[in-house]
Design a protein that fits this description.
Elements (H helix, E strand, L loop, with lengths): L5 H5 L9 H7 L3 H12 L17 E3 L13 E3 L5 E2 L14 H13 L6 H7 L5 H15 L14
Antiparallel strand pairs: 1-2, 2-3
Helix pairs in contact: 3-4, 4-6, 5-6
Length: 158
């Protein structure tokens, strides 16, 4: 009996995928979510989103300073002089919604068989306005359109 429910303790469901609860625990802060996104996007270290520089000796992490409006996760490229974060060039760019909520939003949109509405995202992720949740839904659907199977049939249907 001890081995029967091991998936519950591991935070994974019967298929070995992470559960929503495990994702919420693991990425409870924006910092944890940002570190995860950085590892996904840049497995070999940050790459400048403006010039493509990947030389780690020429990319510097900027120390966050709220007084000077320097946000966490900011990098500066010594080649082009531009600052960038992991969200530059992604659907999360220019969003005030925290990255941990984006991560949970992606999970919700991918894990369900039926579509998730903007109202559901707004309520479950505690997003301030319906408009923000609607834009988030739109952006997530845009990001997933190439990797998620389409419901539309191709070819001749008899």
């Amino acid at each position: 009996m001890a081995g029967k429910h091991n998936h519950i303790q591991s935070g994974k469901n019967l298929t070995g995928e992470l559960t929503l609860i495990e994702i919420a625990k693991r990425f409870s802060t924006e910092e944890a979510a940002r570190e995860y996104f950085e590892k996904l996007r840049w497995p070999n270290g940050p790459i400048c989103a403006h010039c493509g520089n990947a030389d780690q000796d020429r990319i510097y992490k900027v120390t966050p300073n709220p007084a000077k409006k320097i946000r966490a996760g900011l990098y500066k490229c010594a080649e082009c002089g531009q600052g960038f974060t992991v969200t530059v060039g992604t659907v999360c760019e220019d969003s005030h919604i925290p990255l941990n909520k984006w991560l949970i939003g992606f999970y919700m949109m991918c894990a369900r068989k039926t579509q998730v509405s903007a109202l559901q995202l707004q309520r479950q992720l505690e997003i301030g306005s319906y408009r923000s949740a609607w834009f988030m839904c739109l952006r997530i659907r845009f990001a997933l359109q190439d990797i998620m199977p389409s419901d539309k049939l191709d070819g001749i249907v008899e």
